[in-house]
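Render this sequence as a predicted structure.
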Amino acid sequence: MGSVAFRPSSFRVFPLAAVGLLAGLRVLSPVQALAQDVTSREGIALQDQIMDLRQQMSQLQSAAGPGGALPPPVAPGAAPSAPVNGDLTAQLLDRVSTLEQAVRDMRGQLDQLTNQVQTQNAAMSKQIDDMNFAAQNGRGGAAAPSAAPAPAAPKPAKRTVEAVLQDGNAALLRRDYAGAQAAAQEVLAGPRGPRQIDAQFLLAQSLAGQKQYRQSAVAYYDTYNRAPRSGRAPDALLGVTAALLALGDKASACQALDKLKSEFPSPAPKVRTAETSYRTRAGCR
């Protein structure tokens, strides 16, 4: 700190105790009043610092001597004889000002939190009052009629077996083999009936269209086993033959044709034509 010159005519000696008392009353009194409202850890720490500051002020008073007077002023340009006490006093006053500002800041934060809590409490009280009012009105009068539930969407009518097979055969004609397979499996998953033979035959045809020849041969033979004397049986054996030829198993294809000839010696003309063609391709004897 720079030294300050004083004129001897205007200089008056003040006891250090009086200076400390005035500074303490001017600075520490509002701090102490504010610190009493602070209950947080920071507030307690500030109070401890203020107590420490008071002790330092007391030590400074004791170091000044019995009279408690400040050191005499120095003339301009002269070196101060004891600058330590003056510097320490300025530092203490700065610390007190800093602590006072910190207490004011904390008090402002506490006021802000208090306002928030009061606002929340007011909102909660209003909500509770509204709920109580609604509950009382509900008990006092007749309840408002509830809105009629929307009618449920009508379930789509279940298709008949004939309709499913018709769609499956149409899919087969337009080479929608996956659609034909799905229709056949839908009928086969339903209750047993005479049309399941047709569904089994459609399944075999759809698998052949997807070039799943091994599964197709099994499906054709299942068609034959379901009704070995039905009108589908000759066509089913022809289907087995065609699938085996596609797999390159000519010997098994010839066995299927022999079975067809032994069980149906006088087949329909189209069946006989297909049998002759397959025998030639398989090289059957």
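Summary. Residues 83-140 form the longest helix (58 residues). Residues 16-72+84-121 form one domain.
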